[in-house]
């Protein structure tokens, strides 16, 4: 039995490296074929594209010329589950590289990936985050995904597989062929920071108590859902404090208050300067951790939720 398990691990590792090597080789081949082009769109196997996939990319691609801290534009929101994403007009900055379908400048590939392939040896859906850490850059992601995995491929996965955990939950994907991204110029580094500040200034603060979090963790807190349902078109901010000895522990519990579950074997993605964004019932919701530069002093925060 141990021998068979080892064979599976080696085979999986081999296929994984084969897949990432295939992507790297493909990017290099395209660069040689089109030496005057600046960017390339990479599409993972098994994806279905939204009807506005290219239009979405075209609207945001100008940002590469305006802001060299943007490393890529992703068409996939790793947190784009049903009922917590749904606004096709919104895009965010993220400190995580979600992959799947993305546009990347050849210059970024040459500098941060090609010369350090160990950064990107795992599947793109788990993120090529070492490339971001090396550059201290960001990725643009949509609130509403522009790609989806083929459902049949997901159904064939083992329930214990990380891919199954990530893709088996019901997700939202845009189906409108002509959607405009709201103020894409605000996605540049300086303007995005100010945009978040402006959102917070006009927001409604939702205080989530320790008791609320415990109920959310058990799946028994309907009060927050009712409150969000009664709001419409609002910006709602929730402040929380993380336990330093248990990274993302309280965050994983907090998102359950909005009926969202992050797979236990996957590190949370889509966070920007300790701020996490989602949409629900037509509202924009910002979860802001105590150490974020966007944090505003509120009621006493506790970090010992079990």
UniProtKB/TrEMBL annotation:
This is Alpha-1,3-mannosyl-glycoprotein 2-beta-N-acetylglucosaminyltransferase. Initiates complex N-linked carbohydrate formation. Essential for the conversion of high-mannose to hybrid and complex N-glycans. Belongs to the glycosyltransferase 13 family. It is found in: Golgi apparatus membrane. Gene3D superfamilies: Spore Coat Polysaccharide Biosynthesis Protein SpsA, Chain A (3.90.550.10). Keywords: Glycosyltransferase, Golgi apparatus, Manganese, Membrane, Metal-binding, Signal-anchor, Transferase, Transmembrane, Transmembrane helix. GO terms for cellular component: Golgi membrane. Coiled coil: none annotated.
